[in-house]
Amino acid sequence: MKELDELSNEEAVTKLTAAFEESGLTFDRAAALAALRADHHIYTDDEGNLVLNYEGSTQKLSGVLSQWGRTGAGSDYVDGRSLRQDEKNPGGVRAKSDLVDAKAKSAYISKHGLTAYEKLALTYTPAEEVRFKDEYSKLTVAQKSALAAKGTTITAFPTRPTDQIRGSFIAHDLLAKQRAINPNKR
Predict the structure, then answer these.
(1) What is the pLDDT of residues 17-26, one digit of tens each?
(2) Edge to edge, what strands does the sheet with 42-44 contain?
(3) pLDDT above 80 (res 130)
(4) Pairing of strands 42-44, 57-60
(5) Please, which pLDDT band fits residue 72 given cuts at 50, 70 and 90?
(6) How many domains does the chain have?
(7) In Å, how far are 2, 131, 164, 166, 182 from 169, measured between CA atoms?
(8) Domain that holds residue 43
(9) What is the CA radius of gyration of the chain?
């Protein structure tokens, strides 16, 4: 076992680069390494991997970087665009309408990138609340995929009745009573 400082410069750079690459995140590497080294002791294990004691156990540096960068204090050193999009709700934002002012929009773009902002829907419609085909067509691809995984496709939804105003709540039993009173009214 060797300390990180005992490794040759070339060997240390190679091992650190490999660990940062394996983490799957894009870091400000110098700042992240300085922050980690301030609190933790980095050394090599018997197999030559860089390891450190983190949360009470010896772990590979790449795994620590991944965990630390996603959930810990290391998230300050991570480029938000490199975070995997498997998070269901990054930053609590589901649609552009959730970003209420220019400051919130610019903060979202700087953290997640312009591409992620452009992929946001204008408004959010929970997939569970979809009742008609026109509502289904406004869902994001991810929401449609989630419904498809449950076996629900566009053919499962009826066409919106022509007498129903879009976006309004209709009490169907009250509508049936009104039709019974005046059957000619549409």
Answers:
(1) 988 888 888 8
(2) 42-44, 50-54, 57-60
(3) no
(4) unpaired
(5) low
(6) 3
(7) 68, 12, 9, 9, 21
(8) 4-82
(9) 26
72 and 13 belong to one structural domain: yes
Q: What angle do CA 58, 69, 73 make, to 5 degrees?
A: 90
pLDDT of 126 reads 67
How far is residue 185 from each of residues 162, 173, 175, measured CA to CA in Å? Answer: 13, 16, 11
* Vertex 175 angle, CA 172 and 177, to 5°: 115
DSSP codes, 65-114: HHHHHHHSGGGGGB-GGGS-TTSSSGGG--BGGG--SHHHHHHHHHHH-H
pLDDT at 83: 63
Residue 173 placed within a domain: yes
Assessment of whether the complete model's pTM goes beyond 0.70: no
